[in-house]
Amino acid sequence: MLPDPDNVQSLIIARYRHRYRVVLLFQISDPVAAQGFLRKWVPDVNGGLQPPSSYQAGLDGAAGTPDPVYHFAFSWRGISKLLKARRSETQGLNPDAVANHLESFFTKEENAPHSRSVAASLDMKDVNAPENWWAEDTDPAGFHIALFCYFGDEAQKKQGLENIRREATESGLREWQFPSFEDKALSGKVPPGGILHFGFRDGVSKVEIDWEDADKPGKVNFRELLLGYPSDQYPLSPAEPGPWREFVRDGTYVNLAWLYQDVATFNRFLRENRGAAEPHSGAEDPEEWLAAKMMGRWRNGSALALHPEGKPASNDTSNKFGYQNDANGETTPLFSHIRVCNPRDQGLTSVNEARFPNGPPRLVRRGFSYGPPLQGEEDDGRDRGLVGVFACSRINEQFYTVVRWIQKTSFSDQFDSIKNGRKRQDMMFGFRKKHNAETTTHIPVTPEGSVPLKLPLADFIRYRGLAVFLAPSLKSLRYLAGD
Ligand code: HEM
């Protein structure tokens, strides 16, 4: 059985050119009224466009301001509440049966990222601990509905937010607000050229979905993203056929991450280590070279693996590279951000090979930058960073796994040749106070990679919130809306 792209919320298929992004989080008090709210906005999901071919035509090609696009996702509690509003079986789905399966499913409260045990397993401690997440008086258990909005310009955003908020209030929805954002919701924009706060271009790596299940080279199995089609290689929950599997089919999990970026600390790190980098940076500026070694890409997005000698004059967005002939990380360091988050063809430990027979876990990333650029060198106390949106079909096997690998690089035998290799971290984004962590850079600077550049790393980001939602198929979305 093949997935139905026309039934999928386009979040994971299309990259939108809309620059203004907002994620609204709502709590349901009256499920029947909430259904009314959904019915009002569901027609605008995917920008009202249906087949994936028209997403491209409508979103990339059209001139002028594109129409807004919305996507809906729900927490376990949110889905349970909406299902209770349905009284009888329709479209072959029995709401009680679906709700019963939900009870035993992954996103229930004790498996949510804000729960103590999950947060501890992800090393969300100290400044990253859940008690410091979100805003004062926010209860993440009350994030029932996440509405992802894409707007073409400021005026459209203003009007769109006004309309949504009015309808939401009338439907008894409580909106969770975040005062450090101008829009009082997680909001921001895709910066010009896709350049994020640390100066790197984002949106370069792409996940191309193999919709035909044809094992096409360079394409990603659709089961890495879509629920409802378990196979031997992808033992996706729910394994048993039945209403819950029908309900989640063509849906995906959406992991939402509010990530603060400490730009002043990152810039200072580069500046202070300029001298140490200089003997190795060739014709490149030493700070640019150091930043690139930590990311695995030059700041203009070009991969070190394809441009080892220096940044090409125009950015090269090719993703056709691996790490097989760079075992020691002489070109792309083993602990650079993109190599930790997607080790590509680098061997994993036998435990991880067994866990990921199809290669390392993949994530579709759909985030946006928030907050003003830092002016000057000192921190100005303003909130800025990235709202990360990571889609996948297995929260623990994909999203949580990559978050854990960022904190502790224990996933590959490749690290055994390096001192404390399995206790290191993503050079960009680890929590450096982690117990026993080796928190220096490892940037090979001799031909065999035997002598690394060791510089003390700082915490460059802070987790300010993590939440997990299910973005159901269009069919299930309409079902939740009471159609
Ligand atoms: C504020 C925090 C973060 C920033 C600024 C950031 C920035 C970036 C940048 C600039 C790239 C390279 C551009 C590209 O490949 O498209 C990248 C790649 C990537 N990041 Fe992050 N990232 C952050 C956090 C995370 C987190 C928390 C995860 C996972 C849980 C993650 C997963 C990935 C993945 C999977 C890639 C693609 C790697 C590849 O396929 O080669 N990132 N990130």
Topology, pairings included?
Blueprint: E1 20-28, H1 31-41, H2 52-61, E2 69-74, H3 76-84, H4 95-103, H5 116-121, E3 145-151, H6 154-170, E4 173-176, E5 186-189, E6 209-210, E7 220-221, H7 243-248, E8 252-261, H8 263-272, H9 274-277, H10 286-295, H11 337-341, H12 350-355, E9 364-365, E10 368-370, E11 385-392, H13 395-407, E12 443-444, E13 452-453, E14 461-471, H14 474-480
Parallel strand pairs: 6-7
Antiparallel strand pairs: 1-3, 1-4, 1-5, 2-3, 8-11, 8-14, 9-11, 10-11, 12-13
Helix pairs in contact: 1-3, 1-6, 3-4
The structure holds protoporphyrin IX containing FE.
Query: What small molecules does this complex bind?
Result: protoporphyrin IX containing FE
- Number of DSSP E strands: 14
The SS-based structural class is: alpha+beta
Low-confidence stretches: none
Oligomer: single chain
Could you tell me the strand content as a percent range? 5-15%
Number of domains: 2
Query: Level of helix content?
Result: 25-40%
* Beginning-to-end CA distance, first to last residue: 26 Å
* Rg (C-alpha, Å): 22 Å
Quickly count the helices: 14
Q: Averaged pLDDT, please?
A: 91
What is the overall silhouette?
Answer: globular
Largest sheet: 5 strands, antiparallel
Order of helices and strands: EHHEHHHEHEEEEHEHHHHHEEEHEEEH
